[in-house]
Amino acid sequence: MSQVLSEICGLSQGDCFYIVERHKTEFTYPLHRHREYELNFIQNGAGVRRVIGDSVETIGDYELVLITGENLEHVWEQGTCKSPDIREITIQFSPELFAGSLLERNQFTSINRMFSRATHGLAFPLESIIKVYGYIDGLANEKDSFKQFMNCLMMLYELSKCDAKELASSSFANTPRDAESRRVLKVKEYINEHYAEELTLPQLASVVGMSPSSFSRFFKMRTGKTLSSYLSGIRLGNAARALVDTTATVSEICYSCGFNNLSNFNRVFKARRGMTPHEFRSMYKKKKVIV
């Protein structure tokens, strides 16, 4: 499989943030990744298709996404958008901007947590976008670089207090979710190592020394997901990654990721990803660029 374009950011060593505003009629930039953190705002983009890792969604008129995963592939495609004036504001900054112990200070707790979650990509709801729209709207035209920096910092702080949806699955992004109890982490680590095998509720409950019924309730309470739903998500994320990174057949990937029925794998994949495994692979292959 060809490699994903590694974008070279316009951020200079002397700058804190790289901010650019564009007005356009279509999206043409290919699937890419970069080490810089990125906050991307889109206005008048209804119908645009957003791909973040193995998350594929059609956006509305307003879009705001934060990405901090260095190897997380992403792209915005034209989709069905017919807007004559799509406004896009991209803000990029180095992971070293808040290096050292700054993010460990109490005042940065919520921002630090947000950056950690954004390794999967974070999509903010409309009410959150409205809350920070004043900051976004004025950033590109702010001439005072110090005020621009402070406004960016305030915007990140306000966003860190908002609800946001994680996009790419943890198994696709190759990064863990938020810190959890030791028992939940122990089970998740076991699943990550053995997801290709047949796993049962009694088997996983025994990993943490609990009865199956107690563990089932405990896992749902701590994660918000049933064990079967979580396990299916891990297998699908690994399958999506294999579709992107390998030339194995869909059937081979199906069985190597713990699914024991090809038709069920195709059905579940389409229900979760909105397209078949073949369509998902074709989409990524079409958007990849050799570098």
Write the layout of secondary structure elements.
Layout: E1 5-6, E2 18-24, E3 32-33, E4 37-43, E5 49-52, E6 55-58, E7 62-67, E8 74-77, E9 86-93, H1 109-117, E10 122-123, H2 126-139, H3 145-160, E11 165-166, H4 170-173, H5 182-194, H6 201-207, H7 212-223, H8 227-245, H9 250-256, H10 262-273, H11 277-287
Parallel strand pairs: 1-3
Antiparallel strand pairs: 2-9, 4-7, 4-9, 5-6, 5-8, 7-10, 10-11
Describe this structure in words.
It is a single chain. This protein has helices at residues 109-117, 126-139, 145-160, 170-173, 182-194, 201-207, 212-223, 227-245, 250-256, 262-273, 277-287, and strands at 5-6, 18-24, 32-33, 37-43, 49-52, 55-58, 62-67, 74-77, 86-93, 122-123, 165-166. The protein is α+β, with helices and mostly antiparallel strands. A 6-stranded antiparallel beta sheet has the order 2-9-4-7-10-11. Strands 6-5-8 form a 3-stranded antiparallel beta sheet, with no helix packed on it. The chain has a two-stranded parallel sheet with strand order 1-3. Helix 1 (109-117) crosses helix 3 and helix 6 (201-207) packs across helix 7 (212-223). The protein is globular. The two termini are 12 Å apart. The model has no long low-confidence stretch (mean pLDDT 88).
